[in-house]
Structures are given as structure tokens and as C-alpha cells.
Design goal:
The protein is built from 13 helices and no strands. With about 280 residues, the chain is mainly alpha-helical.
Amino acid sequence: MSKVKRYISPVILPIFFLILWQFFSVKLNNPIVLPSVTEVLVILARPNSSLLSLGSLIRNTLISILRVGIGYILAILLAIPLGMLIGYSRRIEEFLMPFLNLFRPIAPLAWVPLVLAWFGVASLASIFNIEQGGLYSLFNNIKISMLFIIFIGAFFPILTNTIYGVKSVKKTLIDSALTMGARKKDIFIKVLLPASLPSVITGFRVGLGVAWMCLVSAEMLPGSLAGIGYLITHAYTVARTDIVIAGMISISFVGGLFDLMFQKIEVKFFKWQSMDK
């Protein structure tokens, strides 16, 4: 019975929500305001069908995942070493953090006017000088302005969690490594990084969530020709609310999968952390 309850309880509210949704859609009888569950399910059941001549749901979702992935990886590559340096050295922290804290409260959307002025509609295709072929259509869809917005969204959660993780490492571990002749490089790679990984993984999880939320805003920028955010925006302009909701569900589904992946990593590799509490 306990196992049955365990599997049933998480689906009670979603089922209740779907029933309410269907009830109000029938009651309103206005698909522009609230399409029915079945109308949205028809779109989700055919993810390879073209929507509004903008490509299929799955194609636009994959392009969005690629954009998020690039911006997110760039944020990791900068935030991890920077966070480790700031967390390890008080002098570097006093030098960098006042400056970085000036930018942390700024919402990613507030950067849009500046980003457009700086980068315009420049893409990876223009950076790598790709002018034709299959790679052009792919790289031309990855605008620098979009990557910047996604990068900013992911950067600060990863940075702050990395700093916290490094500061949480017991000083005795560092002192022991130094006593045994470890170099600074060894301290970072073999002591600080492994010991701070639980907090770093949390930063990855939060950063990816924020990056994914910034996606729709990034894909509303000029020059966007594909992506789930672009599909949602265009569907809204032609009053296709069913496509809007299908796109929102796709964002939720992919974001949920990524979050579940990090949860599994935390449980599998860092179970000892919860046992210490």
C-alpha cells in the first residue's frame, strides 16, 4: 500500500488540474482564451508536425536546448574557476566581489537594450565566417545576444554556489594537503573541487533552471527565426493559444528532465552530505 501511495500521490494534483482545465475550457467555449486539453494534446502527440510554417515542436525545442546548452556551458567555464579563486583567496574576494555584486541584482531582461546595441543580430555563423550550407542555417539561429542573456542568467547562481562550496571546505583538509607537499594546482583540483562539488552541483541545477527561464526572453529578441520561445511568441500573435500552451509544456518537460537529472546525481554521488546533517 505504501508503494501504491508513493506512485499515486504525485499524480493526484496534475489530474485534478487537467480536469479543472477541461471543465473551464468547455465552460468558456473560447479556444483563444483557453483551449481544451485535447486540442493541446493533439499538438503534443504529433511533435514532428510543422506548426505555423515555423517547423515542428521537436525541432524548435532542440534548437532551444542547443542555445541554452552553449550559454550554460560558457557560464560554467567562467563561473567555476572564478568562484574557486574567490572562495579560496580573501584578497581576490575583496578585489572582485564588490564589482561583481554591482551586476548580480540586474535581471537578465534588463540587458536586452544594451545587448542589441552591442551585438545586433550577429550569430555564430558570422563569427565563424560560415556563409552557406547546412551549418549556416544552424549557426545563424544561434545569436550572440541570446547566448549573452542565457549566460547571464546561469552565471551568478553557479558562481555564488561555487564560492559557498569552496568556503565550506574544512581548513584542515587544505592544511593537511599543504603539509604533504601539495602545490596550489593540486589544492584546487584534488581538494577544493571534490570537497565543494555538492554545492557546485546545486549551482549547476539552479543555474540551468534560470538559464532555461531566460530562454523565452532571449528568443523574443530580433533576429530569432526558430526556437520554442519564438514559436510561442509567434503563436500568440496569431491567436493560437493551443500552440502557446504546447510550447510552455515542452519548456516545462525539458526543464523538469534536466532538474531530475541533477537530483539523481545529487542522490547517487552526494548522499553522504545529507547523512551528515
